Amino acid sequence: MLFRHRANAPVGLITITVMLGLIMAIVDTTIVNVALNTIAGNLGATIDEVSWVATGYILANVIVMPLNGWLTAFLGRRRFYAASLAIFTIASLLCGTARSIWVLVFYRILQGIGGGALQPTAQAILFETYPAERRGAAMAIFGLGAMVGPAIGPTLGGYLVDNASWPLIFFINIPIGIAAFLMTLMFVPNPSYIERTKGSIDWMGLGLLTAGLASLQYVLERGQHDDWFNSTNIWLLTITSVVTLATFVWRQLRGARPLVDLLVFRIRTFWIGNVIGIVMGFGLFGTNLILPLFFQNALGFTAWDTGLALLPGAIASAVSMLVVGRILNWFDPRVLVAGGMLAFGISAWWLGDLNQYAGISDIFWPRALQGFALGFLFVPLTTVTLGAVPRGDLANATGLSTLLRQLGGSFGIAILTTLLSRELVIAYQSLAAGVTQTHGASISTLTQIVSQNATVIAYDYLLRVSAIIFFICVPFVFFMRPSRGATAALAA
């Protein structure tokens, strides 16, 4: 049989297989954003309606991520990853054929169900496939996809929309998904130590988890748009998320066969690593949101100039992933994580010193430092955090870690957009109060100047806030206790 599974497949083939799925899923979270206006125009949708194309995908993602361990045990590693790829690929085809906005949103939710499992499962497969002494290198490879993927998405999406049509941003997944699906059946192993789950599904727990995470993600995604707690919907969904998630946690801790094993958080290194991971998600997702807006709204960059300004960060991340694997055996990994957090904070503070006359050359070095810092953050942090987890619990642990990093990003975006709205008003009012009309300057000209200066002040403030958060969290790194296995894994 042509696609029969090969026992003891080469590590390189397994790596290529999971990286195809990983990069496809991560790029898809950002590639759609640049096409939303075009999709709205083609499908006759409002901006509010088309925003659900992105929101629906993320909602489905966060619901599936914590179920990674249970689904892996229920279906088996190879079957679960192959099924996720199949769902994602078929949904991509359907998305490209959608001719109404709500049909497209429904297909994106299906796509999110498949895509939500790809990232944590890929991480677990890589961590288990590589021997202990090469796991640092495995997490560096994973990090290349996790960090560089978001930088590729907007650029690729913009090119396809400008030079072809928006359905192509979905159709491009089909050949990659088919290849990854077939390679999964051929090369990805089923670890013998993963016990198959027996018995019925905890439907009550699944319902509580779905309602809680969906409500929380909606609040974070739409809170600023709906004016937060001035909205009845936001109040109701906040209460729903608190009650359902608290009940879910209570139910899981008492159950003999929990849907999500929360006892993994008894491992101190794991939960501290995830707290830092939330902060990392805040920095990665938050800055990925505000920097393009800053460059275009405050500095007047074109879309192409914005891409060029962001590129040094992506390149530096890729370089640092390679560098960190070579120096890990010389340092305590906690020192490297702390150094990465400090460097990221310094780069954010540096970017917060820009004014409206800044150009690409002024952004190059702080952006390069920021990208380099992410590599030093991600690789040792991930390896130490997961190195403390028994390998039978890795699927569950990677799902929870990915979820918390995603929620950290959602919290970061919600906080930063709210602060941006507030600071824009404060800065504009403060500047406008001190303006007096000068000879030859019209009211409209003065208004434009004040508005641009207020915008720069507001974005600089956000970047400084991001820097302070990273500085505050540095001491927590040293409460982690790398296990001997994790330390050996870092000697890549």
Condensed summary:
This protein is 77% helix and 0% strand.
Structural features, described:
The protein is mostly helical and 492 residues long. The protein folds into 2 domains: 1-199, MFS general substrate transporter like domains (Growth Hormone, Chain: A, Up-down Bundle), CATH 1.20.1250; 264-433 and 442-492, Growth Hormone, Chain: A (Up-down Bundle), CATH 1.20.1250. Helices cover 77% and strands 0% of the residues. The chain has 18 helices and no strands. It has helices spanning 11-31, 36-43, 47-64, 68-75, 77-97, 101-129, 135-163, 168-171, 173-187, 203-222, 232-254, 268-298, 303-327, 333-351, 360-387, 394-433, 443-473, 484-490. Helix 2 crosses helix 3 (47-64) and helix 7 (135-163) runs antiparallel to helix 13 (303-327).
Find the structural class using helix and strand composition: mainly alpha
Provide the CATH superfamily of the largest domain: MFS general substrate transporter like domains
Provide the CATH top-level class of the largest domain.
Answer: Mainly Alpha
Q: Please state roughly what percent of the residues sit in beta strands, choosing from under 5%, 5-15%, 15-25%, 25-35%, 35-45% or over 45%.
A: under 5%
List low-confidence stretches.
485-492
The pLDDT mean sits at 79
What is the first-to-last residue Cα distance? 37 Å
Task: Quickly count the helices.
Answer: 18
Please give the radius of gyration in angstroms. Answer: 23 Å
The CATH architecture of the largest domain would be Up-down Bundle
Biggest β-sheet strands, sense, barrel: none
Whole-number tally of structural domains: 2
Q: Helicity, in percent?
A: over 70%
CATH topology label of the largest domain? Growth Hormone, Chain: A
Care to count the β-strands? 0
Order of helices and strands: HHHHHHHHHHHHHHHHHH
> What overall geometry do the principal axes of the alpha carbons give?
globular
